[in-house]
Design brief:
With 312 residues, this protein is α/β, with parallel strands linked by helices. It is built from eleven helices and eleven strands.
Length: 312
Amino acid sequence: MKKTDKILITGSDGMVGSHLVELLKKKGYHNLLTPKKEDLDLRDQLQVETYFRQNKKIYYVFHIAAKVGGIKANMNALAEFERDNLLMGINVLEQSRINNVKKLLFLGSSCIYPKKCKQPMKEEYLLSGPLEPTNEGYALAKISILKMCGFYNKQYGTNFIALMPCNMYGPRDHFETENSHVISALMTKFHDAKINNINQVCVWGSGKPEREFMYVEDGVKAMYHFMKKHDWDDLKSFINIGSGKSITIKDLALLIKDVVGFKGDIVFDKSMPDGMMKKEMDSSRANKLGWKTKVDLSTGLKKMYRWYKKNI
């Protein structure tokens, strides 16, 4: 990528997208297209077609935009999560092909793996069993788009690559409890309980499931690394990116409780769903290709909470 190349970042106003924009600017890239969702509805084929036509010679695309949410949001809108994410991916990939984009990077999700997937999850375990029902719609959309990247490369000679991250967290995450992911939801709950002198916080599920987390700055550095240094011809598949370390929801809750300074009790609501019992990525391929995480979970949570107190 040349510093003058025109680069489109979808989802640039979200947590991951905004951090990627910051990283690219620090690296000296200044020809960045960062449309907000109110200006460009990626689900609308005509709008996406028009945008690419008006912004000629887009050389690189980071497709990050997605409809995301926690367990409750996914369960309540399975069709919407699948439909919206499929439409966005299809429209962006097709217009990237038509307009001869040099390279596209699609950011997926670890939810693509089966509910009872062998751990740690390797790239070859994709489609080896049934998906987790609570977010099946979202997962199916992500699987379809990552497979489509490979199909486009084979049929049209494009250079579309895909990264599958573990759960990312950090500043500018969603903090509404129903639409947020586990770390931001728990941080909000513990903080609110602390300032309102509430003596207990309820956490969904048994606390036994294990999840893997990656600080957002590590995630966007992976995206930059693979966009710069690795093409489809040498990857031949999507790539997992993660920390390689999982933690139980119970231990995560205790860690966030300590970071926030909440002194009360934690109660686990076992009537609520746990989701997959363990999700830990095998990121050995990414590591061999020159990328590794640097920020440990405790450090990342402290940085995130400092930002939360100033901004939320």
